[in-house]
Amino acid sequence: MMQPRHVFLSQPVSKFLLSVMLCALGFASYAANSDVDWQTLQPNNTNVSLIVADPSGKRLIDHNSQQLQLPASTLKLFTAVAATKVLGPDFVFSTGLYYQGQREGTKLNGNLLLKFDGDPRLTSEQLGRLMAEVPKAGITEVSGDVILLADDDSPKWGAGWLWDDLGVCFAAPVGKLILDRNCVKGSVTSIQPKGKEATQVSAQIYPSRVHLSYPLTIDNSASYQPTAPSALCKLHLGHAQGNRYQLTGCYQMKDPLPLQVAIVDPAAYIQAQIKQQIGNTFQLAGDIKVAPASIEHATLISQFPSMPLQLLLTEMLAKSDNLIADAVLKRMGQQLFQHNGFEYGAQALKQTLSGLGVDMTDANIIDGSGLSRYNQVNAEQLFSVLLLLQRDDELKWLIKALPLSGYNGTLKFKRGFVNPQLRGKIRAKTGSMTGVDNLAGYIQIGEDDTAKLYPFVLLETGLPANQYHPATLAPPLLKQLIKQFTKPSAIAAAATSKAKNQPKLAPPSSAANQSQQ
């Protein structure tokens, strides 16, 4: 069993002295050694927090850095750092198959126990391989049940997750029972008349048909209306008890329209998958059910480990994967507090970052993904984490795990980031939701290991929700900054500054030290 990773902390610095320093530096809003008049680039009526620094961490622009904002998926930077420290890069989730009872030849007089561990990447194919180990262990007949063990009664959705997102895969339920990302993919296709019937249709309103990779129950009354006013044509996916859904409203953008449905009852989905996988593999007299049981006196048949945490976090940062983020957050809570709930994971995250010198006093952390509208952080906290990645050898790998503009992850095709001026020059974590467009990472000047990294945080809220692609500050601002940083004088200054200075963080909190130990 993997042991917890402990973070040892030093003495606190006076908050009064720190506040005096902040006031003296004018952290509310200032620009030093920067020729970029960024405020002329800011879209109207948006609210911006912005920090830009040179490679040593010296600030060139600082505006509203203490103001609390919605982080969206930039919160995953916090999750990645805390998880690396608490769980370690080699940590794995482990799904185990056990038997309990007495064996008589090839018959088991007892139950099979399938212990789920919250592996966010466990697939039906992997589960099938695990069940195939039963006859390999010499068991061809089971007199009892297949019992699914989850030991998790915490909420599967975070506080502040929007109710109309809960049937969609990016807000899939998070618990110990996860299979196939708790997501079923498919499409919606219109049923359009052909031949003579097509000429008799006066209005372009067509019924639709749902196609899914797994047969969930969907009551579908949605229609395809390509000429309807966009403001009046919305598709709605609701869910009732069990894995039963209602698809209503209309759509017009694509036909067929891709559909991703969250499995709101993972237990029912897993039961159906196991029933199908058992097939003729072995005979089961009992049921497949979720029930309390202990593996204390059970015998292990086989187990399936997840990919190591480092690979999971790399995927989480690149694809902004919410399920991985929240599964990891919950596991941090279990590791430090022996509870698997969101609130315990959030406390583990705050405690760990505080212990590393990041002032999390005013932060409100609800989940690890950034989905919750109740999350609040400021640019200062994100900037501190960026400096931490540069100075801590255990965390430096996370920099290259960040999406690279025009090449991979959420920056591969992001609007405004595929042009030659930005391509390959931004390594950053994106964070977007309705009205919000955030970016936290580095401007990369140079190639690979010799590149100069200019840390920056840009949190932008108040974007118009009724526009599909509202204008944002990030692309024009970053173009201007790159232009400034690639001047010969700026390159020479960056090299000199980096030689003289190293990124520094405030000393860690002793209060966090006491609770961690």
TrEMBL record:
Secretion signal span: 1-31
Entries under InterPro entries matching the protein: Beta-lactam/transpept-like, Peptidase_S13
Swiss-Prot/TrEMBL keywords: Carboxypeptidase, Hydrolase, Protease, Signal
Segments for region (Disordered): 493-517
Enzyme Commission number: 3.4.16.4
Superkingdom of origin: Bacteria
Gene3D superfamilies linked: D-Ala-D-Ala carboxypeptidase C, peptidase S13, DD-peptidase/beta-lactamase superfamily
GO molecular function: serine-type D-Ala-D-Ala carboxypeptidase activity
Keyword Zinc attached: no
Pfam families reported in the protein's UniProt record: Peptidase_S13
Family the entry assigns: Belongs to the peptidase S13 family.
PANTHER family, sorted: D-ALANYL-D-ALANINE CARBOXYPEPTIDASE (PTHR30023), PENICILLIN-SENSITIVE CARBOXYPEPTIDASE A (PTHR30023:SF0)
UniProt protein name: D-alanyl-D-alanine carboxypeptidase/D-alanyl-D-alanine-endopeptidase
Originating species: Shewanella electrica
